Amino acid sequence: MTTTEAREKFKCFLSKKGLRVTNQRLAIFDAAFAQIEHFTAEQLLVHARAIDDSVSRATVYRTLPIMTESALLREVDIGQSEKFYVAASTNATQVAQVVCLDCNKIFEISAPFMEWYGSTVSSKLGLTPVSQRLQVSAHCNVLRQTGVCPRKT
Amino acid sequence: MTTTEAREKFKCFLSKKGLRVTNQRLAIFDAAFAQIEHFTAEQLLVHARAIDDSVSRATVYRTLPIMTESALLREVDIGQSEKFYVAASTNATQVAQVVCLDCNKIFEISAPFMEWYGSTVSSKLGLTPVSQRLQVSAHCNVLRQTGVCPRKT
DNA sequence: CTGCCTGCAAACTCTTTGCACGAAT
DNA sequence: ATTCGTGCAAAGAGTTTGCAGGCAG
Known about the structure:
The structure is a homodimer.
Chain A: H1 3-16, H2 23-34, H3 41-51, H4 57-69, E1 73-76, E2 84-87, E3 95-100, E4 106-110, H5 113-124, E5 127-140, H6 141-146
Parallel strand pairs in A: 3-5
Antiparallel strand pairs in A: 1-2, 3-4
Helix pairs in contact in A: 1-2, 2-3, 2-4, 3-4
Chain A binds a DNA duplex through helix 2 and helix 4.
């Protein structure tokens, strides 16, 4: 799915839900889909304001759940204080995260077996799985050996 | 490991680290190990105060990392606002959590393959895994069919 | 026009911290 | 006698919400 297609899908989603297509919501969408990496609400606010400086923090926080619900964004919680988000256009739904504790980068890796695991384990408990998440926290080998992280921005 | 053994281990850990064995820390330990299920800092405070009413919230928050570091407690972050903790006496280290979205109960299940997965995936990225977590969110079948969750406390 | 959306700022939740007193070693 | 530990309350971070005015449909 291209960004343009995603933008249409977003507008469509808003209309169907009886929500209004506002400049602020579109600015937030555009800012989100211009990000290369995972971003926080605060980072999104900065970028959205660069597009439309009337965007407020409150609207960012109010729009993030809408975009998550419409499956255009994925919420990634790595157990830090802040939540992260990514545009869902590029990745599959069944992904695991590898978080580098040195450079704080989040790598995403397809993990199709996760779904199988979720169903297997849940059914034993009489539950129906809704979502899975698998996260690995790790240290950077290169940093340990050379003192410099090659991925550090 | 029995609770009594764990208590000794805790005292021992404190001494070795040059930390003091105080009544408050012991009360917090006892409260933690009296819990059947996962608990929050706030719940622990209530129970610890029942043992020693001089225990303060601050001390609970200061003691939890110590108990986690000493491997007597495991921290379980299920992406909600509060963190949960469990006495580590009964479970293995490689566990996955299944969280019921209806009754909010946390089930823990041994998942030995997680470690293998972590190393495999990390080494491809030039990283050394530190920890893994696998979580499944699920809905209760019985609740959906009968309207009542059999596990609801 | 109607009512959802918005920005602002205050409120909220969970957790951390500075300080002076108190207790463990 | 020293220090470290403590309770208290305030601060802090991230997020949510009440309100009065604004703009989409």
